[in-house]
Fold:
Amino acid sequence: MTNNELLEALQERFSSIVLASEILHDALVIEIHPGHALDFITALKNDEVLSFNFLTLIGAVHYPDEAGRELCVVYHLHSWKNAIRLRIKCYLPQENPSIKSLTTIFDGANWMERETYDFFGVNFEGHPNLTRILNMDEMDYHPMLKQYHLEDETREDKDDRFFGR
Amino acid sequence: MGKIEDLEVINGEGYQLTTLDKAVALARSNSVWPLPFATSCCGIEFMATMGSMYDLSRFGMERMSFTPRQSDLLIVAGTISKKLAPVLKKVYEQMAEPKWVLSVGACASSGGIFDTYSVLQGIDRIIPVDVYVPGCPPRPEQIIDGVMNIHKLVKHEPMRRRYSEEYRHLLGNYEIEVTNADDDK
Structure:
């Protein structure tokens, strides 16, 4: 199955759900409304022809300048049967970044969603244990959001002129 | 082997006198049991230091102690993340006095290149350090040099140091209590 065939198949089955599409780095990328994410990915997994049976990755991107759609949750799906991958993007507002959890259909989503929560503060509704997974428990912010500095703020011996701060 | 010539001694016919302090310090410095706390590439260099080529056991450090309660020297080699920091502190607290700390490499000493929110910017923010070894990672020769400096400290440390107010104050800065110093006063 090629990317164009996949796009055709998606538009045939889910024409009202796919908002935008493009081919980036040899893989099809589609945008959907975050409210559709769980139902749509469940349908892709159960579809006999498409059969996206493997969730490769969940991640997020922060676009601080795009009002109302600052946080982008990205799902990477893989269809072993058709040997093709698909990326799905859902844009969320920063005030209330909530999206339904995929843990009901993919067990592997558990830790990936915890990681996305840990670094970006995305709230996955229905996750059984949405707590920090990689950062220390005492941390009180989500460090991958761009308003926070990457560097350790407690360090005094580095001169900004030389260390690119 | 430590040399008895290093000590101030009084030689007589059939006997040799020195102070208990110095004899104990000499014995300690030649039987330092290290606890390697190795997390990354500095740990690999330390493994080379332990191996047959560089052979740390020449200095009475044959036995790597992977339990803090039976070790004298904590060797921290590698990046310590902030999440790992309480573990390292716990390990240090579990070691019995007298104890020394060797910080191996840029990361353990200062955070190194990892100037980032998740990495501890030097282990001396949570535990006192006796000797720092620079390098990224340091070569085994440098680690041995650091160990030699630890030996020098051990050899010249008065037995009463660990009972002193200054030492209590030093550990107090790190919010660590001196636990067993009073037991054998």
